[in-house]
């Protein structure tokens, strides 16, 4: 089988974004280049990698998922090789200032920074928890070099480097009747008491899931931290919808939480790094972003995700 690393990068991006157009935008190439790479690799393998649906983008076939898992392993090995060669020639130091969307910070940053510090012991890292509204302010002012966030901001002014897609899932008290199922639907949830995260973009996204289906959720409580929301859900005071979850067992004052897939095809934001266009990052920042991409390809964040139930 003959291929280039460019072919592999293109097909990996297409699966990650589940869209040829979105993958092309992320890689700043033409959609025809992505499509040509897919066609080429499908011709080389003799099997389709994707199912194409005009209104819903592309989805990997069973063969395609296995194939792309192997592609990611190969790309990760190549990235490790490049990083090791770079480390032979450069001792990275300096300070990286990272802004992180508050709900993502305690789940993702420890994994990211532990790996980065193990590789580059001379680095100093400053972290600031921010809301989505604050991200442009700290990036534009130079307070932060880049932001770890959802890709929901103006891409004409900022460049977004996606790491993984984060499908919505449902958190319920383990004692809730719906917690006994394999998945939950928005119709089932509509009359149930909902606990929302009182952050502008998060709340808009959550309510938009229901509005897109002509439903109106029963909002009873709101809180400004995901830890508080999870504690309320564990106590049986309502349900919540999240896009990522803690990767280790949580302890609550009362009760416990069950997390189930949300059935259906829903808007699925990407998690990644946001930088201002036209701004050259320090080598230390590039090293951190490259380490994040490598971790994502190696599945370091898979435990934070629950894949949707496809009916």
From TrEMBL:
Keyword Ion transport found: no
Statement: the UniProt record of this protein carries the keyword Transcription: yes
Gene3D superfamilies for the chain: Periplasmic binding protein-like II, Winged helix-like DNA-binding domain superfamily/Winged helix DNA-binding domain
Family matches, as SUPFAM superfamilies: Periplasmic binding protein-like II, Winged helix' DNA-binding domain
Coiled-coil parts of chain: none
Entries under InterPro entries matching the protein: LysR_HTH_N (IPR000847), LysR_subst-bd (IPR005119), WH-like_DNA-bd_sf (IPR036388), WH_DNA-bd_sf (IPR036390)
Domain of life: Bacteria
HTH lysR-type domain segment(s): 1-61
Pfam family, one: LysR_substrate
Alphabetical keyword list: DNA-binding, Transcription, Transcription regulation
Homology family: Belongs to the LysR transcriptional regulatory family.
PANTHER family recorded: HCA OPERON TRANSCRIPTIONAL ACTIVATOR HCAR, TRANSCRIPTIONAL DUAL REGULATOR HCAR-RELATED
Protein name as catalogued: LysR family transcriptional regulator
């Amino acid at each position: 089988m003959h291929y280039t690393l460019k072919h592999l990068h293109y097909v990996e991006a297409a699966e990650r974004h589940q869209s040829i157009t979105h993958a092309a935008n992320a890689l700043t190439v033409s959609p025809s280049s992505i499509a040509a790479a897919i066609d080429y690799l499908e011709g080389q393998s003799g099997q389709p990698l994707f199912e194409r649906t005009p209104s819903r983008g592309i989805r990997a076939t069973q063969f395609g998922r296995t194939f792309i898992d192997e592609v990611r392993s190969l790309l990760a090995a190549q990235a490790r090789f490049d990083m090791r060669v770079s480390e032979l020639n450069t001792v990275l130091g300096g300070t990286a200032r990272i802004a992180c969307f508050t709900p993502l910070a305690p789940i993702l940053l420890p994994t990211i920074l532990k790996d980065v510090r193990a590789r580059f012991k001379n680095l100093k890292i400053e972290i600031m928890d921010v809301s989505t509204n604050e991200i442009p302010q700290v990036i534009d002012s130079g307070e932060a070099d880049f932001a770890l966030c959802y890709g929901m901001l103006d891409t004409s002014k900022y460049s977004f480097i996606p790491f993984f897609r984060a499908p919505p899932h449902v958190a319920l008290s383990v004692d809730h009747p719906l917690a006994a199922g394999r998945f939950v639907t928005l119709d089932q949830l509509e009359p149930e008491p909902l606990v929302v995260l009182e952050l502008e973009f998060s709340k808009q996204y959550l309510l938009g899931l229901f509005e897109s289906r002509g439903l109106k959720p029963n909002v009873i409580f709101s809180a400004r931290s995901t830890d508080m929301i999870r504690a309320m859900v564990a106590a049986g005071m309502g349900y919540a919808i999240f896009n990522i979850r803690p990767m280790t067992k949580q302890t609550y004052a009362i009760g416990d939480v069950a997390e189930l897939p949300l059935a259906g095809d829903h808007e699925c934001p990407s998690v990644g790094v946001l930088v201002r266009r036209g701004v050259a990052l320090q080598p230390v920042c590039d090293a951190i972003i490259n380490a994040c991409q490598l971790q994502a390809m190696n599945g370091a964040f898979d435990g934070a995700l629950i894949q949707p139930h496809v009916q």
